[in-house]
Amino acid sequence: MSNAGLASATKPPTDTSRQPLIPESIVDAPSQRLYILSLGLLCQAIKIFDWLHSLVLADHTTNLTLKWVLVDIGFCLVLKRLRIPRLNYAAAAVILQIVSLCLMDGVLFGSVQVGVSSYSLSSSARDFYRKEMSTSGRMINLRDLFVGDEHLKGEHTVRMSPISTAKLNPGGHTYCLSPPANMILIPVLLNNTKPSHIRYSVSIPGTEKVDYVDLNARELRNIEQQRLEALKLTKASASADSEENSDDDWDDEDEDLAEGNNYLIGPSSQELEKTQSVVHLKVTKPGTVRLERVLDSTTTNMARIFFGEVSVVPCPQAEFVPDSIVKGNGIRCMGSKEELAIKVFGVPPLSLKWHKEINGRREYFAVDRIEGMPNRQGQAHELRIPLDMPLDIAGLHEYVLDSLSDGLGNLRTLAPNPAARTTDASLRLSKETIRLVTVLRRAAVSFRDCAPGKPSSLLIGSETSLVIAAKEFDPEDGPWDVTVQYQPGQGAGANKKASKPWLKSMTLPAGKSQFSLTASGPGEYSVVGVKGQHCPGDVLSPESCRVIQQPFPTAEIDWRRIHECSGDTGVSAYLVLHGKPPFQVFYQQKRNSEPIKEMSRTFQGSRGEITLQPESSGDYTYTFVSLSDANYKRIKLDGPSINQVVHPLASASFVFNGASGVGSRRSINSCSGSAVDVEVDLRGDGPWNLEVQIVGPKGSEMLQMKDLKKSREKLKVPIPSAIDEEGGMFQVDLVSVEDSYKCRKDLAVPGMSVNVRRVKPNVRFYTKDGKRKMIILENQEARLPLRLTGEGPWKVKYELANSSSLPRTAVLSAPNDFLIVNKNGVYRLLEITDSQCPGTVIEAEADYTVDWTSRPAVKLSPNTDVKYMKYNGSFIRAPVCEGKEDHVDLEMTGRPPFQIGYNIARNSEAGGTRILDSPVISSIQSQTRIQLLTSQAGRIYYEIKHIGDSNYPVSQNRHHVIPRNERLLFEQEVVGRPSAEFKKLTRLTHCLRDTFVPSESYSTDDMIILDGRPPFHLELSVKNLAASEVHRQTVELWETQWRVNLPNYVFNSIGPHLVTIESVRDASSCKQAITDPLKTSIWVDVAESAAIVPFDRREHFCVGDITQFQLEGIPPWTIGYKSNRKQHEQVAKQSPFALVQQHAGEFSITSISHQQQMCKTAVDNINFEVHALPSAQVAAGREYFENIHEGSQAQIIFTLVGEPPFTFTYQRSEVPTRKGAKQSKVLETHTVSGVMSHDYSIYSALEGTWTVTFISDKYCRYPPAQPDGLADKNKG
Asked: How many CB atoms lie within 10 A of CB 499?
């Protein structure tokens, strides 16, 4: 590495923080110094120009001071940042430069203040070169500077604090007393008030007694401390509960706890303004609480109280009256009725919300406007409300009271949380607000698989089981006691054990739907009653079961050899079987000496044929051994045997459904008559002789049908006499047929079964209590219970009596079916036909009456004072003033609760009426009250358009409205309340001693707008704040617009006057409407008549003395004066007005006016004399600060030193921003003359600083005439 490179590597780095911000390669250092210094000199030159300009115009010097302070600071900081060589000063030097330049700016443009002294170069220069007007009308310089001012001392500063107010219950909440605390805290919102004493009253309801309670500051602090301690305990308890329970476990009971402690929680401190605070009143008894007086500890004045009152009543309560449900087991039977009673307590009208839940399906209800006794309006009392509990649906019925609110808006939640019903308190609350009823179905029993037309079979020597089944039952009602009756039948005498009738009570175990009854003998078994543990049951059809004993099967056997007109070819056995098919016949065959073979044949009918035509020849022997039927097995037969050594003709068959054939077994029915028609199809050559056999249960009969000539003949077969009497089944078989050739052929074709019915089906209406009557809702379906016998399905013909409609036919499928109808009237059964036969109607039970529940109706209560107008069918209610409560009472008929829907209408501007609202109200009582709409003036019409009750609720019958010609109509005239307010809120201006009449004909600033019916009686008040006097006057007006014209009132003092509309009445005599308070009053500023008062009263002046005059009124002033008998006129824009006495001679002021030539006053005597200077002090020479509220007044005391009488001038200026600050703008100036005492005081309700600027006694005045700026400097 080279030496140069080594030197370059070891050279220290350059310090960039000391280099110029602008590199010298761009602008060299001398040029940078030239540019920055030139800029600084330019700024200072502009500053000097602004200072010279400020000497001419004294305004806005503060803005110039701030401007140049910022410019100088910025210049110094930029210079430091540029780091120009030779101009890069240390930080301390830069700070010194900034301080020096700011001090110079303050001297030039503003006041450099140290302690209570200040100095301004601009003000000093202006004062030195200032010129004053001389009596000759020329400006002259003032040389006389007065130093020190011990003659005018002190100032009284009045600050306007916000209004001290107190408002009871700022949140507008409702309060009620709830045990066990029976105490509430009502908040009072205070504004700019530290209460030292509070008085409130409690009016006892129902009496004229009023209790007054006084609280001092200590008692208020104790109440607040107790509230905070109770609030801490509540929060701690809530925190502990929140740790035990998750967020999901928060329930209604916790909400009730929070709601119960709401009286502890006041407005949040974050919601209050700085001037606001809250105290609480502790109330322990019901009544109307009013705030009477609040005394402020800071001003000892009473705070303005907003009108308001709080009605404290006992909290509303509701509970079920103790009844048999809560005292018993809470189980009822379906179809029964239960009536509950609800006891409510509170201030009517009460509103109750409740719900019922049936098998998990919940339905909510609300009962509004529960009225109490008229003589206890506004008082809490107890009422009882009936509540029907229909039990038409099986399952769990739950009635729960949800909430109750009273007429004041107090709401109480009644129902406990279901998850918390295990605690003692919750269990007690549940008994009071919840009713639980388990509704059980009535058990219904009947025989199963056994009916009058379907008896049960009993075998000889055995027993049979009869099944009794239960339907529509509840396991909770079990076990059931079923009463069964037995009546022996014919043939039961053989069985000694079952020969006597009996009546037994049997038990159907709980949880089972059926049980078996063992029948050991024939006869009729009947169910005569059923009863559960809680509910009686019903007996359904079939209620009886007939048991028939079946005989052993028998057989009649007739052997016949088969002869084909040529020889025997076999043998045929013809069997007539008695019993219950199917039959199985067992027989044996033996051929020669071979072993015996046993064979069997099955027959489905009572007659059979076995044809034995063996294939082999031999000596055959056939023997019948035993017989089986559906009931018995292998009953021994002592049948005949036949022995034979082994020899097609005419045929016949029954016609089934018009077709011949030999199909399966068929049957026909016979309902009446002693014979049945059977159709036979004959084949071969006729005529035929046919042999027919009739087979009954106990015998048979042969019929010979001869000379049958048609191939299809209809045979009349007589019914066996035993079957013809009681009914039953018999068989018709074709035995043989013989053709024209006399060849006879035995037949074995399927027979015809004949079912003879002698028990005809019948029908009747069923009832438990003997009353066949049902009441239903209009157009609702009614299920009329029937009891039918026979074989279904049934066709029942019925009619509606006294109706023009034709009879109807219903097809029914069950013996306990229902006839469904939806009309009212008497229904009569006419005919019945089952699947086989026509039947009969039981005349004694053939009628059933269906009535409709009457729809609810409404009418005006007789106690309601109305007048009926026949021409339009409307009731006229007496006129009422707008806003005044009025009502009408209604009476309802029906089943509560009721719902009433009505229209509210009024006359429209386009003619006709316009509907305002269509509310619906609910009532659980038969009387209710409708609050009339009185918030709008005009003719108000009311029309009841529909009414509902618990049978016909409005929600389900919206299509059903009351016909227009039947609707209840009533109307009322609502008379509007009169009102009056100022059209504008502009402040008026009048001169002292003016009469209160309109000053300008075209102005509407003092116009009052009236609304109502003329004539009006308007009461006005004029309050003179300075003199604390109030003038009241009532005028009668016929117009709706009026300008304030009170010629008998004269403004005798200056200052603000408040004109207020106190009241207004019109021809309706209604109370006036509430209007905006800001529009009911207006301010009038009364100024002095243009006046000029000299500061000094002397007749001789020294050369160089300045004559100064104090001007009263509002600038600008026009002053007329004479000097040396020469008239002059001068316009002054500010007060005081100064003239330098330049020449000796007579000087007088002739006139003065202000406000552009307004309130002009002639001046004829102003005399001056020179003596010792008087002095004046405000607030004993101190700087006194006082805070007052709006509407209050401050007393300003002036102490006068000298020889009475005194004349002094005081002024009011803006309140300084801080103590000792520069005097602010002068707002008004006044001069008081002729004061004979050394103390003088005035009262003012305005904000500002009062100081004395001029004082003169009997001979002298102070200060001499000089500019305000000079006087201020001398004072400082």
From this structure: 12
Cβ within 8 Å of residue 343, ≥6 positions away? 318, 319, 320, 321, 382, 383, 384, 385
DSSP string of 53-79, one letter each residue: HHHH--TTHHHHHHHHHHHHHHHHHHH
Q: Which of 129-138, 507-516, 935-944, 951-960 has the highest mean pLDDT?
A: 935-944
Q: Say how far apart CA 842 and CA 150 lie, in whole Å.
A: 133
Name the pLDDT band for 850 (thresholds 50, 70, 90): very high
Residue 917 forms beta bridges with which residues? 904
pLDDT for 427: 53
| E-strand stretches of 532-618 | 538-539, 544-550, 554-563, 568-578, 583-591, 597-603, 607-612
402-416, 778-792, 1130-1144, 1155-1169: segment of lowest average pLDDT: 1155-1169
Distant-in-sequence, close-in-space partners of 180: CB < 8 Å, separation ≥ 6? none
Mean pLDDT for the stretch of residues 586-604: 87
Alpha carbons 134 and 129: distance in angstroms, whole number: 15
The strands making up 337-346's β-sheet, listed across from edge to edge, are: 317-320, 337-346, 381-390
DSSP for residue 955: G
Q: How far apart are CA 416 and CA 539, in angstroms?
A: 43
Closest-CA residue to 178 (of 414, 494, 444, 453)? 414
| Low-confidence winner among 247-261, 1060-1074, 1102-1116, 1257-1271 (lowest mean pLDDT) | 247-261
Name every residue whose Cβ is closer than 8 Å to that of residue 63 and which is 6 or more positions away in sequence.
Answer: none
Q: Is the peptide bond before 30 cis (omega within 30 degrees of 0)?
A: no
1183 bridge partner residues:
155
1213: β partners: 1226, 1249
Structure tokens at 918: 């269509």
Strands of 657-791, DSSP E: 659-660, 666-670, 675-683, 688-695, 700-708, 712-718, 728-738, 744-746, 752-756, 762-765, 773-776, 782-788
pLDDT at residue 1221, as a whole number: 57
Sign (positive or negative) of CA dihedral 840, 845, 848, 849: positive
Cα 825 to Cα 850: distance, rounded to the nearest angstrom: 5
How far out from the chain centre does Cα 520 lie? 71
Query: What gap in Å lies between CA 831 and CA 849, rounded to an integer?
Result: 18
Q: How far is CA 140 from the centre of its chain?
A: 85
Q: How many degrees, rounded to 5, is the angle at CA 336 between CA 334 and CA 341? A: 120
pLDDT tens readout for residues 426-479: 555 567 888 888 988 888 899 988 888 788 888 888 888 889 888 878 888 888
Query: Residue 864, class by beta-carbon neighbours within 10 Å (0-12 exposed, 13-18 middle, 19+ buried)?
Result: middle
pLDDT of residue 1118: 82
Distance, CA of 236 to CA of 255 (rounded, Å)? 16
Number of other CB atoms surrounding residue 1147 within 10 Å: 20
The residue among 757, 760, 811 whose CA lies nearest residue 786 is 811
- In 3-state terms, what secondary structure has residue 469? strand
d(Cα 270, Cα 272) in Å, to the nearest integer? 6
Do 1240 and 1072 contact (CB within 8 A), yes or no?
no
Contacts of 370 (CB under 8 A, 6+ apart): 344, 348, 349, 350, 351, 352, 383, 385, 923, 924, 925
Residue 1073 phi, psi dihedral angles, 5° rounding: -75, 155
State both tokens at 234. 């509540």
Q: H or E segment at 1213? A: strand 1206-1213
